[in-house]
Specification:
alpha/beta, eight-stranded parallel beta barrel, 8 strands
Length: 244
Amino acid sequence: MSNIRKAFEGGKAFIPFITCGDPSLEITEQLVYAMEEAGADLIELGIPFSDPTAEGPVIQEANIRALSGGVTTDKVFDMVRKIRRKSSIPMVFMTYANVVFSYGKGTEDFIRRAAEIGMNGLILPDVPFEEKEEFDSVCRQYGLDLISLIAPTSHERIKMIAKEANGFVYCVSSLGVTGTRTEITTDIGAMVRLVKEAKDVPCAVGFGISTPEQAKNMASQSDGAIVGSAIVKLCAAYGTECVP
């Protein structure tokens, strides 16, 4: 069983997201330990990119702060190596195709290194299902789960994506970019049922979960909740003092 699957074994999974290097890589490392201690089951680490098209203003600004602070993919890899000496919590990278393509000698170089340092999966929100094979085949070769995203779209499409999903399925709660929402109107339960009809794979819901009540509601209809902007906002507000 993949480490990602294990994250869903103890009940509903809590999956926090943070942008690596905001406010610094040292703080990001401390945040991972603190989040694991506070009950996180799986952690999404964002590798900053200059044009994060899926992100709303909160995470876009975190990307800019991290890049201004000199964060590079190699420095993020070094940080993960340190984390892996102390923690075996399942972790996935969330980044963009360009970051993977442009790394070292290209896609295989990035994915091989991510697997070597102990990452468990990869989320690429700008890669559509029709173009995932060039990444997926390399991920499979190195034992990394390429996580599929499913938006509130056609039923046929949801089932098609679910059939080939690995690790877990990232159910996008709302169309548009990431960010906190006052309410989530998508019928998440229906999306999750369609996925489960196609394949027995965990489903976690993200994009827009900003309160504990929303997280509870989303988790009641799925296998877990993903929270990014609400946490990244705290990193922005408290900077180097954000861990507590």
